[in-house]
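Hello K.,

You asked for the raw outputs rather than the summary table, so here they are, unedited. I folded two proteins back to back in the same session to keep the settings identical. This is the first:
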Amino acid sequence: MASKLKILYLSYWNSSDVLTKATVLPNLSILETLEEIEHLIWCNVERLKDCGKERLGSKITHIPLKSYTKKLSSLGQILDFIILPKLLKQIVSENEIDLIIARSSPAGALAYLVHKRCNIPYVVESFEPHSEYMRYSGVWNKLGLKYTFQKHWEKKQIETALQLITVSKNYKEFLAKSGSSNIDIKVVRCVVDLDKMSFSEKARTNIREELGWNDSIIGIYTGKLGGLYFEKESLLLFRYAFDEFGDKFRLIILSNQPKSWILEKLDEHKIPLDKTLVTYVEHELISNFLSAADFTFAPIKKSPVSKFCSPIKVGESWAIGLPVLLTEEIGDDSAIILEEGGGIVFTPSVQGLRNGIVKMKGLIESGINKKETHYLAEKYRSLSFTRNTYIALINKMNEAKKHVVI
């Protein structure tokens, strides 16, 4: 009988971050159910608050890693990558960890630095070219230290990780063609808990009645304007939606950006504020607002690396049964929509934006089959993909142990 594993799960976001709630906690829950795992240590990089070690569930211990970024900005981030690997090495040693699972390539950078110190095997899930995302979104400069170091660490992860789990078939194929075919590469698109992220007729009715939008056509946008998402183009899409759908159209924006700033941008583009709701809700409530809507805006920036991503908002929208208005060449999803439905793909030109809205209007008027759209979430974004990948990984670890010569 194979010995049970002790795993360190490493994530890069605050414990309260929506990405933690949407992508980390469900994966921890899956790992906790696997009999082959004895203990899970979850470490995340905590920037917002001081919190201590705590027990979560029967197998999980949460040990947050205090970041220096909040107080010292760029210098703090440098210190993070000097100090945190030392702390992680100590945690690995004290808890006799067998394997590190890092969520995202920034967390993978920390896992690589620990691996370099103590040769602990590690896996990077949700492995993406984060450095290039940040470069093409305009957040990082190609000559800057953040880009340079992250790009270097991504290369090292490709060379040294036990396994890489990408979020798109496109990126797996790219890595294989670029000389990484000897690496064990799996694909798991950003998955969704279909039990929690599900359509609610009650929520739809209640929110629409509360807003007085019972008979409206509602488009919803979740997340920030700018960064990895278009800003100007998003605002134009909103404007064209009001133009095309007419008086029946209403807009919901769920964002943690300053409300005053968003309202100012909307006003500049002559978007009727009395027909727009701008607010922020916790991730647990997003499904209610998606249920109230008729389609989702997903104007993600197109770039040379945009085909490698997997937007969580696409999976969540499909889970609710909502069609998605998505930029062309985004992850595997744009191709899925073109081949199987589940939304409209648009080009990020002025005419392309208009055409996208016109096509979405036609799609809605023809009638949306929520079950067919939900099926796309089952087919491509189910938690079962993560679970099966973990089981295969554990089998791989146990098989490797059999061949260790003592």
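The second followed immediately with the same parameters:
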Amino acid sequence: MTPFGEKVRALRKARGVTMKQMAKDLEVSSAYLSALEHGKRGKPGPGFVMQVAGYFNLIWDDAENLKELANLSHPRIVVDTIDRSANATYLANLLSQRIGRLDEQTIKDLIARIEETIPS
């Protein structure tokens, strides 16, 4: 699952909207919406993100948060370490090889550490 997919699912469930109904209302297939929610599709385009924001009447910070989640939701990323140190390349490779073995709390701890060390 991706951050965007998790948020869309939460919004949908909180409002009692089925995936089938939302897909119909947004004029996309249920399969596409399901793939987005489950992280089996790449990050959604900005137009679709705004459609979803409008569908759930999200404004200001909530709409911006949804856009940010979409930007951080590509399930297959490439980390370019050209012109970076050997340690940067090592870190990127180590994370790609071992991320599947990290428990959720460790992932949250790493995210917090990165966000506090390197603000966006």
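Residues 107 and 113 are 10 Å apart (CA to CA).

Happy to rerun anything if the numbers look odd on your end.

Regards,
P.
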